[in-house]
């Protein structure tokens, strides 16, 4: 059945509704933060959920503005469907740059070692001091922090656009 | 490719080695998306945005600048390495 819900014989696909995506984005970001702040840590899940939170708020904004859901997972492509207020808010943003550079929808399939290899292949491990866990934690935290900043800007645009 | 998109790439190319264009033309004449260059290898994310801004500010009019959206500046590794 996927992400749809079945009630009294009717199928409701809730996953593409802007308000559902907006609320889901807040929950996903809180969960990402918990995966870093609370033990047992899970850096793979934290990294994935942080980007998913941003993808969700971008989708909420894009669908609310009348765009179609194309089922792709490119943050940059979703931003292109969002209102110009969000483009203005993210213009020149180092956090947006970092998030686009580091997040990939496929992170969810990685193990801890896979995530380390992914960061290494992206060029983020060379020259970093400390043990493997400390390096992965540092990079994951940077990704989650960046996602949080971008998410805040998305929420601000969402709240102002849904007030009208 | 829209006129502003073409101009952005034309003014960036002399400053960014092996520039790859993944910008998109948006409704209303806006341009946003991604550019990729090995010139970003040695720069942190803030410095990359400052570099883009400095080049574009010098070459575009105020009206053109206001039509430029968020542009992510990636290294070739960042652009090409996928998780799976």
Total count of helical runs of at least 4 residues of chain B:
4
Helix-strand makeup class of chain A: mainly alpha
Uncertain segments of chain A: 1-6
User: What is the approximate shape of chain B?
Assistant: globular
Layout of helices and strands:
The complex is a heterodimer of chains A (164) and B (84).
Chain A: E1 5-7, E2 10-12, H1 18-37, H2 43-64, H3 75-79, H4 84-90, H5 94-102, H6 112-122, H7 132-163
Helix pairs in contact in A: 1-2, 1-7, 2-7, 4-7, 5-7, 6-7
Chain B: H1 3-12, E1 20-25, E2 31-36, H2 45-59, H3 62-66, E3 68-74, H4 76-80
Parallel strand pairs in B: 2-3
Antiparallel strand pairs in B: 1-2
Task: Report what the structure shows.
The complex is a heterodimer of chains A (about 160) and B (about 80). Helix content of chain A is about 65%, strand content about 5%. Chain A is built from seven helices and two strands, in the order E-E-H-H-H-H-H-H-H. Chain A has a two-stranded antiparallel sheet with strand order 1-2. The longest helix of chain A is centred in the C-terminal third of the chain and has 32 residues, at about 130-164. Chain A starts with a strand and ends with a helix. The model of chain A is unreliable at about 1-5 (pLDDT under 50). Chain B has about 80 residues and is α+β, with helices and mostly antiparallel strands. A three-stranded mixed β-sheet of chain B has the order 1-2-3. The model of chain B has no long low-confidence stretch (mean pLDDT about 95). The chains are: A mainly alpha (about 160), B alpha+beta (about 80). Chains A and B meet through helix 3, helix 4, helix 5 and helix 6 of A and strand 2, helix 2 and strand 3 of B.
